[in-house]
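Worked example 3 (structure in, sequence out).
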């Protein structure tokens, strides 16, 4: 079912397409317009820049795979939520199931591990996802359960633990990115309204800039979260999102923040003081929420729910007459790669493994779409590679690297 943390979605399989598809042919004229509005750069793309047969391409098979079904513990992976490649070519994998980071050389040979379960310096709590970001110093900042961040050097040595200062206007912050000057992009939730069964509650998330020491510097912005319905069944209360709504997503991009507010195909670029610098809009395919579409969505969501109590709750919830949007969200996730291209994952049904990402260039122009029809979740993209995690039919997890061609 939907959860309040967009990053806590588990991997379910393994396979990757070999081509990057262009979204239709390009008729005459420019596929985008650029204008200035009161100092804000507005880029609007009416169609992708890539024409049929154009675009990026991915090698059909990985050139590196780390992970095994059995053997040495260093190659047994469990709950991999993130992996990154350092400037040296070393790959760092966050193995949340073991509460540790593991370093591997560019050929996939194990080098070192760090971290363990706990709440002390360099340790990780039960619910830590070990998401990580490279700092300008070359060190790696790794997210523990908020408000803690553990920092490690490139060789795997523990450097320090950062405790993010809590803002007055929201809950404890959590790390969501690293900025070019070494400061940290963070987020924290506002308190929700009164809990009244049968009512819709709304809240917001606030985005902040923290120093690398953990000191709060500035507030960058605020975005409303997806509305929740307070549902009670036989004395059990839960707080599901209204169907087909989207949480805001934000990422760091050099000295700015990119933000998608409601799953719409519009990205805002804000400077570190919260001023709007640019707005990028494009026109991917949208899905009208017809009765048939909604039935498919409900069936897909219930099919992914295996806990009997949760299934009963959601069956009763979906039997209600709920407010629905006119169209499904166009986006789910937001990502900036090493070349500052912007990746936006399109809407997909719960449990659907086919993933399509819209690609925008650093200036906000829509280039086209990249599809992964198999079960592959990528964590990093460089100029010539994709790095991500997979899980096969036997639940064996691996981290794989694919060659990426950008003509």
């Amino acid at each position: 079912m939907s959860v309040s943390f967009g990053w806590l979605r588990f991997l379910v399989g393994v396979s990757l397409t070999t081509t990057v598809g262009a979204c239709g042919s390009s008729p005459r004229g420019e596929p985008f317009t650029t204008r200035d509005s009161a100092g804000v750069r507005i880029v609007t793309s009416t169609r992708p820049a890539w024409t049929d047969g154009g675009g990026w391409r991915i090698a059909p098979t990985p050139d590196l795979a780390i992970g095994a079904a059995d053997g040495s513990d260093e190659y047994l992976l469990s709950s991999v939520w993130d992996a990154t490649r350092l400037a040296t070519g070393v790959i760092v994998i966050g193995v949340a199931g073991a509460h540790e980071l593991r370093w591997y050389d560019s050929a996939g040979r194990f080098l070192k591990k760090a971290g363990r379960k706990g709440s002390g310096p360099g340790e990780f709590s039960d619910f830590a996802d070990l998401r990580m970001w490279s700092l300008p110093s070359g060190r790696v900042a790794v997210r523990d359960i908020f408000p803690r961040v553990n920092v490690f050097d490139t060789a795997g040595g523990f450097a320090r633990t950062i405790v993010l200062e809590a803002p007055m206007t929201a809950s404890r912050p959590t790390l969501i990115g690293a900025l070019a000057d070494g400061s940290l992009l963070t987020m924290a939730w506002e308190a929700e309204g009164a809990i009244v069964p049968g009512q819709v509650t709304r809240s917001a998330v606030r985005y902040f800039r923290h120093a690398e020491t953990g000191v709060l510097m500035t507030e960058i912005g605020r975005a409303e979260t997806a509305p929740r319905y307070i549902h009670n069944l036989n004395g059990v209360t839960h707080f599901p999102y209204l169907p087909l709504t989207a949480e805001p997503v934000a990422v760091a991009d050099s000295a700015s923040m990119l933000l998608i507010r409601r799953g719409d195909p519009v990205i805002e670029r804000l400077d570190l003081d919260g001023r709007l610098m640019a707005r990028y809009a494009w026109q991917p395919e949208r899905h009208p929420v017809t009765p048939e579409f909604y039935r498919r969505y409900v069936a897909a969501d219930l099919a992914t729910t295996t806990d009997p109590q949760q299934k009963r709750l959601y069956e009763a919830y979906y039997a209600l007459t709920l407010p629905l949007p006119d169209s499904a969200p166009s986006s789910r996730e937001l990502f900036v790669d090493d070349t500052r291209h912007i990746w936006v994952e399109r809407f997909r049904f719960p449990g659907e493994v086919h993933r399509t990402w819209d690609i925008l260039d650093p200036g906000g122009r829509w280039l086209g779409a990249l599809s992964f029809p198999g079960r592959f979740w990528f964590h990093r993209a460089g100029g010539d590679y994709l790095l991500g995690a997979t899980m096969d039919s036997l639940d064996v997890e691996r981290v794989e690297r694919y060659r990426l061609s950008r003509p």
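Notes: The radius of gyration is 21 Å. The CA atoms of residues 99 and 116 lie 5 Å apart.
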